[in-house]
Amino acid sequence: MSALKALIFDCDGTLSETEEVHRRAFNAAFNRFELGWSWDPALYGKLLEVAGGRERIRHYVAAYDPPGGKAALERLDQLHTLKTRLYAALIDEQTARLRIGVERLIDEARAKGVRLAIATTTSQANVEALLMATLDVRGLESFEVIVTGDMVAAKKPAPDVYLEVLRRLKLPASRCLVLEDSANGLQAATAAGIRAVITPSAFSRGQEFPGAFAVLSHLGDPFEPYEHLGGAGERDRMVTIETLTRWVEDDDDVRRLLTIGGRSVF
Predict the structure, then answer these.
(1) Using CB atoms within 10 A as the burial measure, which of 19, 63, 176, 202 is most buried?
(2) Class of the 6-17+97-264 domain?
(3) What is 164-202 written as a DSSP string?
(4) Are strands 176-180 and 259-260 parallel, antiparallel or unpaired?
(5) Three-class DSSP category at 36
(6) Tell me: the pLDDT tens digits for 89-142?
(7) How many helices (H) and strands (E) does the chain have?
């Protein structure tokens, strides 16, 4: 019986390099509200340390004291709703693509009976917009469980979204793998007891990923092998269900060898 039963994907930065689309949508919303704010890539990279769009705006107002901040917070729900609508429009224009290897791995998982889920801080509307734009109805049908930040008490780096996915899948953490792109996501997955494969995105490159199961430049494809950056997968060049299963089973063997009398020695 395979050790690997489910893959749990993060959304933004992991399925697709969507953070730049989010940044453009935020700036377009700020312009519509005549705030005069503009988040450049460097600033947005810092703001991404705060999970959630509303939370990010609140943090920006508190930390940077921009003009019109108080008035913007009074209309925060309207501002964020507009941003979400603008994001969906940009995604519909096919401004985002799935990252290397993602579609292939999703199709392979479905063919081999490995269950699929999404655990993300972003909204259900944003997830559905991306899946429809990149995979059409097949995208919505591929994922058995989708848990978003507004469905749980605390957003990443808290483990809540991952714990809720495990609850809905009715699977132990040891039989799942997470695919993430950020340090916040890794922290959330680790706190939920799930091993995480990290593929750093444009906005998370340079972050540290202590305790990651594997760190790879991307998932790889036959003619675009990944660059191994740490952890499992050093001898492989493409993430497949077979390679992931082998990594998990090898890791389980090591854990058993390093466990004495029921107590882990590491």
Answers:
(1) 176
(2) alpha beta
(3) HHHHHHT--GGGEEEEE-SHHHHHHHHHTT-EEEE---T
(4) unpaired
(5) coil
(6) 998 886 678 999 999 999 999 999 999 999 999 999 999 999 999 998 999 999
(7) 11, 9
pTM of the model: 0.88
Tell me phi and psi for residue 115, to 5 degrees. -75, 155
Per-residue pLDDT tens digits for 160-174:
999 999 999 999 999
Render pLDDT for 178-201 as a digit per residue (tens, 0 to 9). 999 999 999 999 999 999 999 999
Amino acid at 216: L
Interval 17-42 mean pLDDT: 95
252 catalytically annotated: no
Answer yes or no: are the C-beta atoms of 184 and 203 closer than 8 Å: no
DSSP 120: -
Consecutive H or E run containing 130: helix 124-135
Is the peptide bond between 157 and the residue preceding it cis, with omega within 30 degrees of 0?
yes
Q: Is the pLDDT of residue 266 over 50?
A: no
Domains of the chain, by residue range, sit at: 6-17+97-264, 19-92
| Amino acid identity, position 174 | S
Structural domain 19-92, CATH architecture: Orthogonal Bundle (1.10)
Contact call for residues 192 and 117 (beta carbons, < 8 A): no
Among candidates 137, 131, 145, 135, which has minimal Cα distance to 7? 145
Q: Which residue has the tokens 């750093």?
A: 200
